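From the pipeline queue, job 12 of 40. The input is one protein chain; the requested action is below.

Action: predict structure.
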Amino acid sequence: MLTLLMASFALAQDAAPAPATVDVGVLKNSDLRVVQKMLYTKEGKTELGLSLAVMPFDGYTVAPALLASGTKHLSEQVALELQVGGGYGLKNGVYTQLESATYGVAVEAYRYLASVEAGLQVTPIYAKMNLGNGTILHHDVYGVLGLGATLEQSVFPDGAITVAPTLPVGIGARVFVNPKTAVKVELRDNLMVEYRAQSQTWGFKQNVAVSAGLSFFGQAKK
């Protein structure tokens, strides 16, 4: 009797339909997505920043500067920025050598004094970095394009002043410390056209600035 029951059970298992399967085909890279809530958001917030900068790539001067900025984040990707700066262009080794008794050459150069710029900031990247000790850093990468003006002074003894229309183009990154604070680094190229009184000519100049500082975020307005 037991043998008959076991045989009936085995036949019933064989007669049961196989589980249905669904063929999804081949997954492409474009089909894969990682959905994760952003830990540090910017939309609706005002960001205030303070940075130290240096302009080391001019042919005849090197300029330390202090930069202050205010950024209104319209979304996580788009923001409006206002930046003001002040500093002083110092003669570099090349200029000092040219004006020495060995060469006696007077070079028409202008030093950075101050600037004001307004621009559009676009942030296409938000990501995480895993350091070797297991610390995870959240950061974003942004680009900036704007318009502004730069105040410069002739290195010649007459100290002629010029105000140059400026087109700032840059790239930067924020590394978030907490929801209200971030470390910001930036490389910005300020493209200028300035009038030079001594030669009575217009000249093209680039003030490339490397900066690092802190940003502070307010509360998002609802």
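Job complete. The two ends are 77 Å apart (CA to CA).
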